[in-house]
TrEMBL record, chain A:
Highest taxon listed in the record's lineage: Bacteria
One Pfam family from the record: ABC_tran
Keyword Nucleotide-binding assigned: yes
Name of the protein: ABC transporter ATP-binding protein
A molecular function (GO) term: ATP binding
Statement: the UniProt record of this protein carries the keyword Nucleotide-binding: yes
Keywords attached to this entry: ATP-binding, Nucleotide-binding, Transport
Organism: Streptomyces lasiicapitis
The ABC transporter domain, residue ranges: 17-247
PANTHER family linked to this entry: SPERMIDINE/PUTRESCINE IMPORT ATP-BINDING PROTEIN POTA, SPERMIDINE_PUTRESCINE IMPORT ATP-BINDING PROTEIN POTA
InterPro entries associated with the record: AAA+_ATPase (IPR003593), ABC_SmlMolc_Importer (IPR050093), ABC_transporter-like_ATP-bd (IPR003439), ABC_transporter-like_CS (IPR017871), Mo/tungstate-bd_C_term_dom (IPR008995), NA-bd_OB-fold (IPR012340), P-loop_NTPase (IPR027417), Transp-assoc_OB_typ2 (IPR013611)
Region: Disordered, residue numbers: 355-394
From TrEMBL, chain B:
Keywords: Cell inner membrane, Cell membrane, Membrane, Transmembrane, Transmembrane helix, Transport
Membrane association type: Multi-pass membrane protein
Location of this chain's protein in the cell: Cell inner membrane; Cell membrane
Name the UniProt record assigns to this protein: Spermidine/putrescine ABC transporter permease
Positions of transmembrane segments: 28-50, 83-107, 119-144, 156-175, 196-218, 259-279
CDD domains: TM_PBP2
Main location: membrane
Similarity-based family: Belongs to the binding-protein-dependent transport system permease family.
Domain ABC transmembrane type-1: 84-275
InterPro entries in alphabetical order: MetI-like, MetI-like_sf
PROSITE patterns linked to this entry: ABC_TM1
Organism the protein comes from: Streptomyces lasiicapitis
Keyword Transmembrane set for record: yes
UniProtKB/TrEMBL annotation, chain C:
Species: Streptomyces lasiicapitis
UniProt keyword Coiled coil, yes or no: no
Membrane topology: Multi-pass membrane protein
The name this protein goes by in its record: ABC transporter permease
Entry-linked Pfam families: BPD_transp_1
Amino acid sequence: MSPSGSSPGSTSSFGSLCCERVSRSFGRQRALHELDLEIRGGEFVALLGPSGCGKSTALNCLAGLLPLTGGAILLDGERIDRLAPERRGFGMVFQNYALFPHMTVRGNVAFGLKMARVPKARARERTDRALELVHLTAHAHKRPGQLSGGQQQRVAIARAVVLEPRLVLMDEPLSNLDAALRLEMRTEIRRLHQRLGLTTVYVTHDQEEALSLADRLVVLRDGRTQQIGTPEEVYARPANRYVAGFMGYRNMLDVTVTGPGPTPALTLAGSRITGTDRDGVPVGERATAAVRPEDLEVVPDGTPHPGGTLPATVEVVEYHGRELAVQARLSDGQALHLRTRERLAPDDEVRVAAPPERVLVFGPDDAGDADDAGEDARGDSATYAGKRPKAVSA
Amino acid sequence: MADLLERRPTARAKEVTRRRRWGRPGTWIAAAVFGFFFVNLAGVVGVPLADSFGTRWFTTWLPEGWTTKWYGAAWREFSLGQVFWTTALVSVLVVAVSVLIGVPAAYALARRSFPGKKLVLLLFLLPILVPPLTYGIPLATVLYKFHLAGTLTGVVLANLVPSVPFVVLTMTPFIEQIDPRIEAAARMCGARTGSVLLRVLTPLLVPGILAASVLVLVRTVGMFELTFLTAGPDSQTLVVALYYAVFSAGIRTQQSIDAMAVMYTLSMLVLLVIALRFVNPTQLVTRVKEEHTHP
Amino acid sequence: MDRTLLLAAPGVAFLLLLFCYPFGYGLGLSFQPKDGGGALANYRRFFDDPYLRETIWITLKLAVPAALVNCLAAVPVAFRTRGPFRGRRLITTLLVMPITLGTVLTAQGLLGYLGPNGWLNKALRGIGLIDQPLELVHNYWGVLASLIITGFPFAYLLTLSYLTGIDPSLEQAAATLGARRAQRFRYVLLPLLAPGLAITFCLSFVLAFAVFPSAQLVGDPRGETHVISIEAYQAAFQKFDYALGSAIAMVMAAVMLAVVLLVLGWRSLLYRGATGGKG
């Protein structure tokens, strides 16, 4: 139900919103390159990627705040990409909320209704309902400066949804909140979406946020679409090693393909394991095997495993409650991250295995291969540099 | 899709930009103000400029002939060598002293809060808000009483009155944005107060001090009222010498006065261009609040 | 005692000595008239003589319009130049350039440009708009023009700094909520800019109220532009009546203070909190 009580699908919804080869360049720099995306009415779509990947550019293009440099946006077959933002009828939640500091909470929420010349009594009723929806009725008379971050966030959401926009755009709305509040607001946003059924495009760099909120994900990198799919698809079957890395496949291991077929044999640090081919890498070629830390298990010596086992030496052990996060080293020097309930200690020799369907084999990436590896290494050292003082203080 | 392929994206983007840029009433008003301002500015600057290079100029559009002799004449007639020297000396002294007094004060104001801080801030704000002529008259009276008026010291002291607060007010927000934890970190690494100042703070403050210095320099060279009220014949800066040149103009030719005015404007222009390289133009005026820039 | 606070001591001492003390001294002096006649004789003399009293009105008549024109002109120009665009640096430098002119060049320029045989009158006669040259110098208009030329850069820079302090996403938010350009200006930007404009007006006004050299050079210093600062200067440094000079300076300060308080009083009715900026 929408705040005014009109049924979704009448004025406030649409059949489909199509982005056709939407591009945006800044000078020579391509911030967004030929994004093709069809959003169905009522859907929750998340644009996911690290900062600078073009996700905010895409959102601003949809909102009309940035003119396109190529492509078109069609709403139920009608081109809207040249409409000014105020004529698109979309709602937007800004990263810093962009609440009008000189208006009260009520004034902020009612602003759009005033612009739309909604009759006063009706506007008041709708504002009240929107405030109630985000639990802010008691704060209606306050100025944004007097509210906490979470409350400001809710005002921003109320202001965006009170007009029952055809499309709600959210630009990293949770990034300014602390961890606990972020989880709470995430549930709140999901609840609002389920209740109002408003089509939403949500921009974030946090894969967990994207996976938990969205019906579909669009993973972007350097302005190019990497993968579009449901959370399950992107999580379990990332399209390339970049998406895999972003989706928590922390182990990116250099392997050689030694057998044919969809589940080829691989040689890794002198051991044979089995993986699942994702790129059609020919036999004899070098490739990357992507494995999540939680998919690796420690197996007792001498136990055969369908995927083969790897000997490794434990180097660092971190206590994470129920399980341990372990960094081990393979015989060829590659690092291996895994999670286990076994009580391991540094210098333990272990055998590690993973189910073949969880070992994804990718060919060499066309761009940024070395970069990714470098980033991984940096990520590790950063983790340890950050951990050490903690250990001391604890 | 076909319709899409026909249109070249760049052409469309340009069309959008063009419409955005030229379709607005605000743009037209701004253009009118621009135009009016620049045409008249060109006229106001152009007349003395043309006159200073002209031989004779009565009622025609432009002077009858061109010459550069007025510049030499002005230089000798108004002993500009001496005047430029005084101007440079006064400005450099004012900049140096105001930085020496102002930066430590700005540091204290940026890092500490204490009872009566608002009053101290007001004390530093007033000399900038009150026009120089208002406090200049009593100030000059006091300086006369102590026989300082008419001397270089008097001119420097008078010019310091708005300059010290100016340094304080531009440096305070600058120091505030330097994370105090940097100083704490330096101390944790074993640095003593002296080393913290010399090795950690000073390098961080240099850009701010440079900006404040350039601005004080521009303001001091351009400061008419205070110098006018306190300067004697030997301690005139260029602005004041220029004013006296006009007022005792009986026997002087207009052209050499114009030549001198052009020289003044050129020196100020050079300083301004240098200043604009170092600082955001909005810093040229007193910043009443901290300013944020957006890309 | 916090030793850091001592760093502020030289600055405070300096201002107490060279700003507060002279001000107080001047105030005291103004109540000790040179020719006797009671503490208020200087003030009585100023307000009893219509030629002197009029200077307040003459100065206000120059300063208020000049400050208003500068503020109103600064708003659209600041709006146009706030974003990045090609040649922004050049345009800003040109707009700020009048700071470098100084009163004398401005005066010489105005006398030549607006004079009876100046380029403006020549051009206007050339296109047939006027038959007789307009009288624009050695009167009110010359001084007003001079005040606008020298005051505009300050008003522009202040307005620009206030304007760029407003978070641009507020305007974008208003746009996504359906506000058209004019509405965004009316409901979002103007309310946020208004307190800054009040300050800009005050500073422009104070700057123009102390008009001194241009009133002498391009004005009619004995008549139409007999402004208060001329009288103060002449009393103190030509007639050497420091007491009367100080008294007039105090009257000047009082009038300025009154106008500034009036504007700030109005400003206190406005929203004055944060304008976004960067979080």
